[in-house]
Amino acid sequence: FPNKNSARGFEVIDAIKSSVEASCKSTVSCADILALATRDGVVQLGGPTWAVALGRRDATTASQSAANSDLPGPSSTLSTLISKFAAKGLNARDMTALSGAHTIGQTQCQFFRSRIYNDNNINPSFAALRRGSCPQASGGDTNLAPLDVQSPNKFGSEYYQNLMGSRGLLHSDQELFNNGTQDALVRQYRNNKALFFRDFAAAMVKMGGITPLTGSSGEI
Questions:
Q1: What is the pLDDT of residues 7-24, one digit of tens each?
Q2: Global pTM?
């Protein structure tokens, strides 16, 4: 549920996989292709680069219940965000840096409706803007809005500027700058894009190494 209908574009991965298989059969996993495409997409949008460790295997099963319990949701509190990332070996700094991925992409009305109508720590004009396409009562659940109102198609530090102006679209976004432990880091990332890029790249490498499938587990 935390990412319901949000993870799209896998046809791109399928197309890359088909080309790779035609040249080099049963050698490169879909998981590696996804990791490489993620890095290259970030670079193309003006973000940092990093060395992607290769050799992942693809899982043969998936668990919806594990995804529902392990992934933080759009209404998560700061303590929940920190604990869910910590459960995967990622610290609070990693979490705040990785959240900067929300400098690109969009999210659905159903995930930010509560914030724009119920939260107090939100810029009034920003709330009014988002209410225009996200009715309070019913309907419009899948209407999209950019996670970063300033630069939805550029990878930069504007996401953190938005948080400092109470223009985080998701409740979980604004939790990073809400008189809590991550406020100072949000300010640093806003004022030092190079620092954000460096920490984001390092956190992506760290996240890419979470519980790899080894031995007889998984497949290519």
A1: 888 999 999 999 999 999
A2: 0.95
Q: Which amino acid is at 208?
A: G
102: nearest Cα among 140, 59, 150 = 150
Give the gyration radius of the chain's Cα atoms.
Answer: 18
Tell me which architecture the domain covering 100-200 has in CATH. Orthogonal Bundle (1.10)
52 C-beta neighbours (distance < 10 Å), count: 16
100 and 87 Cβ atoms separated by less than 8 Å: no
The span from the CA of 176 to the CA of 182, in Å, is 6
Q: Where are the beta strands (DSSP E) in the chain?
A: 106-108, 144-146
Contacts of 120 (CB under 8 A, 6+ apart): none
Kindly report, residue by residue over 152-200, the tens digit of the pLDDT: 999 999 999 999 999 999 999 999 999 999 999 999 999 999 999 999 9
SS3 sequence of 31-94: HHHHHHHHHHHHHHCCCCCCCCCCCCCECCCCCHHHHHHHCCCCCCCHHHHHHHHHCCCCCHHH
Q: Which amino acid is at 164?
A: M
Contact 149, 167 (CB under 8 A): yes
Mind listing the pLDDT tens digit for each residue in 102-128?
Answer: 999 999 999 999 999 999 999 999 999
